[in-house]
């Protein structure tokens, strides 16, 4: 418990340090430079190391497919969930949300607590499931982001036939350092080459680069953090609805399938509650750069809103996961999970209702004041 709590506080401190450093980073280009280091160096190295560490076994082969199924379900429900909190799913904020909500970042918000509370064997299962999540986040969401980009900017780009769209998409994917390193790592793994088989100088280089990934990402979130009060309520509500729906789905699945091991249920819960991944933000940044170079009149995504989602997602996820795992086997039972899921959904909707009621009162007060002075 002490280790997990200290791990959480350490991650949040990095975000706070980044937020405090905003006074020193007055030039936006400096923050952009940090983002480029993350996307083109630290992130590819981290993915490369993570994939080379995975030991493929027949018993774990189904876990990536379950993770992809979870991603797909989250993507499907996000479009239905957004209107409840006052966000149009076809707006820039709506598209940003639909890209971020289905993504998972278990490495930051799930793995440390699974290791501490459930042990090495469950950590291996979580890492294997994350392989499916990586495929969805890096490939499927990238294709979706580019599809929206072409659709939103068809006037500026002129007529683009489907074959040219596919060609441009493939070329862009091949040029991205992240995708290059993923392809290289998969080639190594399928060839039977793992991390310990690499020469020491290569292993040390990639390992050292991967170590700077988490601090840089958290510092960047703190530096780039900009959130309006209305957006804070929207983001909080959206994340709580996400958590509540996930808990309800896991409880129903555990009850229907009849999972006997408490650890398996807790692993499913912890993995499903993982924070939103930073990788979709890489797709958002790529689209933003393309739109900037083409002087697009409308934006496909809202990068500031994405930063807000990432900044709030990590503490909310870690608090929920830490609280559930620290409660022992209490939330390994489907009924308790169902109750917690309903409470999370209620808190998400309640926050928006309170905000809307406050806005209605402000509007009515201003009307009464105008009528009295008329």
Descriptive overview:
The protein contains 17 helices and no strands. It is mainly α. Helix 13 packs across helix 16. The radius of gyration is 22 Å and the shape is globular. The model has no long low-confidence stretch (mean pLDDT 81).
Low-confidence stretches: none
What is the count of β-strands? 0
In whole angstroms, the N-to-C terminal distance is 63 Å
| Beta-strand percentage range | under 5%
- How many individual helices? 17
- Give the topology string: H per helix, E per strand: HHHHHHHHHHHHHHHHH
Which quaternary structure do these chains form?
Answer: single chain
The gross shape turns out to be globular
* Class inferred from helices and paired strands: mainly alpha
Largest sheet: none
* Rg, Cα atoms, Å: 22 Å
TL;DR?
It is globular, with a radius of gyration of 22 Å. Helix content is 78%, strand content 0%. The chain is mainly α and 374 residues long.
What characteristics describe this protein?
17 helices; mainly alpha; 374 residues; 0% strand
Which helices and strands appear, and what pairs or packs with what?
Layout: H1 2-20, H2 28-53, H3 63-81, H4 92-100, H5 106-109, H6 111-117, H7 120-152, H8 154-157, H9 162-175, H10 177-190, H11 200-211, H12 213-224, H13 229-257, H14 262-272, H15 279-293, H16 303-326, H17 334-373
Helix pairs in contact: 1-12, 1-16, 2-10, 2-11, 2-12, 3-7, 4-16, 7-15, 12-16, 13-14, 13-16, 13-17
């Amino acid at each position: 418990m002490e280790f997990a709590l200290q791990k959480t506080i350490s991650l949040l401190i990095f975000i706070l340090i980044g937020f405090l450093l905003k006074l020193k980073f007055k030039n936006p280009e400096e923050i952009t430079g940090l983002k480029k280091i993350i996307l083109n160096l630290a992130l590819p190295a981290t993915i490369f190391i993570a994939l080379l560490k995975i030991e493929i076994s027949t018993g774990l082969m189904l876990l990536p497919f379950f993770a992809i199924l979870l991603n797909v379900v989250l993507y499907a429900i996000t479009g239905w969930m957004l209107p409840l909190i006052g966000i149009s799913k076809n707006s820039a904020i709506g598209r940003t949300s639909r890209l971020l909500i289905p993504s998972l970042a278990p490495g930051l918000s799930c793995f440390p607590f699974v290791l501490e509370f459930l042990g090495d064997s469950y950590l291996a299962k979580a890492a294997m499931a994350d392989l499916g999540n990586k495929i969805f986040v890096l490939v499927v969401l990238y294709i979706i982001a580019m599809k929206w980009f072409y659709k939103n900017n068809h006037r500026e780009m002129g007529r683009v036939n489907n074959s040219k769209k596919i060609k441009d998409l493939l070329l862009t994917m091949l040029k991205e350092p992240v995708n290059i390193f993923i392809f290289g790592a998969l080639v190594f793994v399928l060839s039977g080459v793992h991390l310990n088989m690499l020469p020491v100088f290569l292993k040390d280089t990639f390992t050292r680069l991967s170590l700077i990934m988490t601090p840089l990402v958290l510092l960047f979130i703190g530096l780039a953090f900009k959130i309006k009060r209305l957006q804070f309520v929207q983001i909080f509500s959206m994340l709580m609805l996400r958590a509540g729906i996930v808990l309800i789905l896991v409880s129903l699945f555990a009850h229907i399938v009849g999972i006997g091991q408490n650890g398996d249920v807790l692993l499913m819960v912890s993995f499903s509650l993982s924070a939103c991944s930073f990788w979709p933000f890489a797709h958002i940044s790529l689209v933003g750069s393309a739109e900037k170079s083409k002087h697009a009149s409308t934006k496909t995504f809202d990068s500031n809103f994405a930063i807000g989602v990432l900044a709030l997602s990590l503490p909310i996820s870690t608090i929920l996961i830490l609280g559930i795992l620290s409660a022992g086997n209490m939330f390994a039972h489907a009924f308790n999970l169902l109750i917690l899921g309903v409470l999370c959904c209620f808190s998400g909707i309640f926050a928006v209702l309170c905000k809307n009621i406050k806005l209605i009162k402000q509007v009515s007060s201003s009307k009464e004041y105008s009528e009295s002075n008329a």
